[in-house]
Design brief:
By secondary structure, the protein is mostly beta strands. The protein contains four helices and 23 strands. Strands 1, 2, 3, 4, 5, 6, 7, 9, 11, 12 and 23 form an eleven-stranded mixed beta sheet that branches. A five-stranded mixed beta sheet has the order 20-19-13-21-22, with no helix packed on it. A hairpin with a 2-residue loop joins strand 5 and strand 6. Helix 1 packs antiparallel against helix 2. It starts with 9 loop residues before the first strand and ends in a 5-residue tail after the last strand.
């Protein structure tokens, strides 16, 4: 274990009501027994996904009246070493009375759920740059404090109306992401807390450099490898209310080996809202770029309680800060190409979802 390693701990859960009154510390997770069962997860797209914890009520407590710090849409922050590491809002409060004690099971969801609460009834996005469209959509999202949109978006054709109807903000963002950026890179997005607890929405290209490093020996169990069905070398977009198609190919990948795969597999996308071939071609190219590379896919990666993760600068990273949207590299696996310093399907993976269980420490 590195000499600089800090014995990280989750320290507290803090909650405030919908009027933004000062936070109430619901419990020190290590010193007070009445908050237990903390389990939090992240997901892509979205970021902070779900938080569950149990609040124990004394025998003299009124079970079916939740404590004043538990309420619908109350904001929840989880801290480690006085820094916020998970942020969301309370949705479910379930009471339990009987054998085993009296308690409330609380479920909170990350603030990305706010993007599903607001709808665009009709919006014309013709001539809009996709990154600017995302910024406009997020202006209507509650509880999003900071926007971090790094890419120059693709500018949609202005030759005809492009009407997005009855979509949530999240669906609008996902729709714009289909067109990538000006370099045809697929986009992803998530909402995570900044250290001070402010929420930050990030919209960016898939990472190409390491965010998290670990060793295969840091995992109790791992099931992963090449999933060939994720690969395609042709992309077809149907658009203009199903009246037009556009196809882009990776001819090298379709060719006979050793350089090619010697078969054709198409990925399909239906975009009825657009009518111009330039927009269809852009979406098809971004789709092809998303499915063209062989990827590592894991069904299970269960870390040990003493696993050591480091960030891109080699600094220790607590396991609950290993998040969806990060690029994870196994430093003790030789890449499939046999070259050091290369990312390939067997030694690096984009994290699509993570979960941390405080009780079991995995």
């Amino acid at each position: 274990m590195p000499a600089s390693w800090i014995p990280f701990t989750l320290t507290s859960i803090e909650i405030r009501d919908t009027q933004s009154t000062p936070f109430i510390r619901a419990g020190n997770l290590k010193r007070q027994a009445f908050v237990t069962g903390v389990r939090m997860s992240t997901i892509l797209p979205g970021g902070c996904d779900r938080l569950g914890f149990r609040v124990w009520i004394g025998q003299n407590g009124t079970l079916f009246v939740p404590p004043n710090y538990l309420g619908l849409n109350y904001e929840v922050r989880v801290y480690d070493q006085k820094l916020c590491c998970w942020l969301g809002r309370i949705e479910d409060i379930v009471a339990h009375h009987g054998e085993g004690g009296n308690y409330f099971d609380v479920t909170a969801y990350g603030l990305a759920v706010n993007l599903d609460d607001q709808a665009y009834t009709s919006t014309d996005v013709a001539g809009v740059q996709t990154s600017a469209g995302v910024t406009t959509a997020l202006a209507s999202a509650p509880q999003i404090d900071v926007l971090n949109i790094t890419a120059t978006g693709f500018t949609l054709s202005g030759a005809a109306a492009i009407n997005l109807k009855m979509l949530t903000i999240a669906q609008v963002v996902n729709w714009f992401a289909l067109f990538g950026d000006s370099s045809d890179n697929p986009q992803m997005w998530y909402v995570y807390p900044q250290p001070d607890g402010d929420s930050e929405f990030t919209y960016k290209a898939r990472p190409t450099t390491t965010d998290v490093r670990c060793r295969l020996t840091d995992f109790e169990e791992s099931t992963w490898g090449l999933v060939g069905r994720q690969y395609s070398n042709r992309a077809i977009v149907q658009y203009n209310n199903a009246g037009s198609n556009v196809t882009v190919n990776d001819t090298a990948g379709q060719a006979v080996g050793p350089g090619g795969r010697n078969f054709i597999r198409a990925a399909l996308l239906f975009l009825p809202e657009i009518s111009q071939s330039a927009d269809g071609t852009q979406a098809a190219q971004v789709l092809l770029n998303a499915v063209l590379n062989l990827r590592m896919a894991a069904t299970s990666l269960r870390c040990k309680s003493n696993a050591v993760f480091t960030d891109s600068n080699g600094q220790p990273l607590p396991p609950w800060r290993v998040r969806a949207g990060q690029l994870l590299e196994f430093t003790d696996i030789i890449p499939a190409e046999g070259q050091s310093g290369v990312f390939t399907y067997n030694n690096a993976a984009l994290l699509a979802a993570t979960q941390w269980d405080e009780d079991s420490q995995v």
